[in-house]
Amino acid sequence: MTSTTPLPTPLPVMAVTCLEDRAHVERTAALSLTAGPQRLRLGPISPLAVDHTLRTELAAAQGAVQVLAARVTRDWTPRSADPPGADDSPLRHRLHELETALRTGEQQVQRLTARLALLDQLAADLLREIGEGTGLGEAEPVRWARELDRVAAEQDTHAERLRALRAELAELTRQRHAALDALTAAEAEPPELTAHLDLTVLAERAGPANLTVRHLTPCALWRPAYRAVFADGRLRLESDAMVWQATGEDWSGVRLTLSTARSALAGDPPQLHEDRLTLRELSGEERRTVEVELREEEISTLGPDSAPGAGPGGQTGELPGVDDGGEVRVLTAADPADLPGDGRAHRVPLAGFTVPGQAERVAAPELSPLVSEVVTFRNPAAHPLLAGPVELVRGSGFVGRGELRFTAAGAAAELAFPGADDIRLIREFEESQGTSGLPGLGQRTVLTRTVRVHVSRLSAPGEQGAQGLTLRERIPVSEVSAVEVRLRKEACDPPPTEVDAEGVLRWDLSLPPSARRTVTLVYEVTASAKVAGLTTG
Description:
By secondary structure, the chain is of the alpha+beta class. The chain has 4 domains: 13-79 and 191-217, Elongation Factor Tu (Ef-tu), domain 3 (Beta Barrel); 90-186, Helix Hairpins (Orthogonal Bundle); 220-265 and 275-418, no CATH class; 423-532, no CATH class. It is built from 3 helices and 27 strands. Strand 1 (13-18) and strand 2 form a beta hairpin. Helix 1 packs antiparallel against helix 2.
């Protein structure tokens, strides 16, 4: 066994497979081995490498070769407290000057505060002396006035200096924060924790060998993203991958593979909780009444791991998961990717296609008074489109952001572009309550709801041609037999074109220039006398 350890051999990252919350890294190196056992140090590598996932493969051109031991060795080097040197950037020198000025200013503040405390104590002693001297008949008004004036003058001087110094320190603190932010954005701090791969190798003959190392690392993830360009009835959809990684090293020119596999889900079994079911007799009041309630249901649009929220696209502060339709999907970047380890989002192109798109103007006045242009297309790719955010681009440029739901190969998908502002919508809602039948003989409560949507088209003088508009409203859907919802088609003006199983109604309107239309929707909610909880509003 050799007693000396050679200089570390570079072990660059050649291929990366990004998972939903981690990455599988592949490294390669060309080694020159000597006959017999030997120790090798390779790296540096990311200190976040997961030790128990470390796998090595060593192949020699001649003779047998074997890896006897492999481990990750980490070294911690504390940050130097010395001032920046000549090789450091002017930004680091500026930050050092500001920190030095802040420390000096804080020391001056402490001295001035202590000086003011002594002056306050001196003023208190002087006032006590004046009280005692006056009581004993030994008054010295001239000396007392002179001493009080001197103490007050020194207090004013030191208080003014303290105020000015605190204002200066506040400005220095602001400049220090700005310099620190600029330094963080421009330069990376030298790592305090470094790691190397130590190998013990047994080679039958001396010669070259190829080493492959694979391991998992956290702090790396990806999410799908899209860019949609719609013009002249054709839609260009480009799929990209947004990749974040803060592993402490840069990935340059790597073969990037993107997978929706969730390796963490198989790590721990689900927690089992006791669930007891008991039976009891219903009370008389419970037999006579049926509790119902009106509820709104929201459907997440970015997969089962996302949740509606106040953020853009209905997202919360947390990054939503990848919706892959329940099956692991693997995507590959066409070109080598450069991914700095700065923790920021980097866009990697994946693929793109151009398909015909059918556009229609759609309005849902209950949700928004604006009109959207919904573009429908079919996925021509051989693989499904994962759910993700979409940047929407028209002929005038970027117009907004939307969302693409999970779309299987060959399936239809929709994208909502912002529509024109030449259509105005005003929605009115009325509700009345009444009864039907005789008391005690099947009397029922009837809620009649009327929705009116006033549609107007603003047209320029001389404009010709009608424009189509799809208007959508909804009615409740009952889940209990004691409550019935009935659409009064005879009172609807005009009658809806379509009513689906979820209670969404559709009208296809044709609006000539400067046209005004009123769409009226009337429906009834009928409940038996034993129903409770059905309120108006």
